[in-house]
Amino acid sequence: MERLRDKLCIITGAASGIGAGIAARFASEGARVVVTDIKLAGARAVAERLGTDYFELDVAREDRWTALATAYSEIDVLVNNAGVTGFENEAVAHDPEHASLADWRAVHAVNLDGTFLGCRYAIGAMRKKGGGSIVNISSRSGLVGIPAAAAYAASKAAIRNHTKSVALYCAEQGLNIRCNSIHPGAILTPMWEPMLGDGPDRKARMADIVADTPAGRFGTIDEVASVCVLLASDEAAYMTGAELTIDGGLTAGTAARPQRDA
Ligand SMILES: NC(=O)c1ccc[n+]([C@@H]2O[C@H](COP(=O)([O-])OP(=O)(O)OC[C@H]3O[C@@H](n4cnc5c(N)ncnc54)[C@H](O)[C@@H]3O)[C@@H](O)[C@H]2O)c1
After folding, report:
1. Are 130 and 176 in contact (CB under 8 A)?
2. Pick from 56, 161, 181, 201: most CB atoms within 10 A?
3. What's the predicted TM-score (pTM) here?
4. Ligand 1 center–CA 111 separation, angstroms
């Protein structure tokens, strides 16, 4: 059964990683997918592989959202997936004491402004269609503090909160538009590459990152994409303003237990 048959679904940041995985799963569920990304060549490559549309979209630029709204004035699903950590180009300080205002703002421009602009566009485009589903990709970093990546954590926390404002606004307006957030833990994608490197200690670094994760491993792109399919589909018709963690149990509590003497 095609769970997203004929739904027009826009996915941001879909040239790689989780976004590309969501695009592939949506296409396999019968959706009409539009692969968007700031990287046009990457978006085109994914779209050609899947036989779908593509569109150059820098989510931080209002004029590009306006152009998207002209090209796709009525939609069923938007996945606000595009995101940056701030570590893509160089290892700059992102802690609360040393982060520069410019670096702080650059992360928020993509993660938070991009999600705000996306939701605003989607509400208009879904209002015309008679309903729809917005899925915002936040992070488990939006649920806890991350001292070394404070801008990323704050922007993801704001996405969680804005998701609920959008959900309540749409309900108030009598619109059949749902808005939910997803909070992945460590998912192995290109986003991790600058932090993992390709040196001899790569394996140890990976083990270190998931050391506290009850499931004991990184999550996969498909494990996030499958939850996105659920939220995008009509199966989740009574879900709005909800947050779903996909983190191998990391935010469930603590795995520490008192040790007993043998
Ligand atoms: N990988 C993880 O462990 C993890 C965990 C939690 C949340 N997330 C979130 O999942 C989303 C996808 O991350 P990923 O791991 O696939 O990363 P990724 O780096 O593989 O993909 C991110 C994509 O976003 C695009 N992008 C960057 N800036 C953009 C902009 N201004 N406009 C449009 N596109 C832009 C990039 O070109 C890239 O294709 C992000 O929002 C990220 O914060 C990832």
Report:
1. yes
2. 181
3. 0.97
4. 9
Q: Which atom of ligand 1 is nearest to the CA of 138?
A: 7
Q: Is the Cβ atom of 186 under 6 angstroms away from ligand 1?
A: yes
Q: Is 10 in the pocket of ligand 1 (CB under 6 A)?
A: no
pLDDT band at 102 (very low <50, low <70, confident <90, very high): very high
Q: What is the largest CA-CA distance in the chain?
A: 69
Q: Closest Cα to residue 223, out of 180, 184, 179, 178?
A: 184
- The number of C-alpha atoms within 13 Å of 216 and in the hemisphere containing its C-beta is 0
Q: Quick one: pLDDT at residue 262?
A: 62
At 255, is the pLDDT very low, low, confident or very high (cuts 50, 70, 90)? low
Would you say the CB of residue 84 lies under 6 angstroms from ligand 1? yes
Q: Which of 8, 80, 3 is nearest to 236 (CA)?
A: 3
| Residues that are catalytic | 152
> Quick check: 243 and 138 in contact, CB under 8 A?
yes
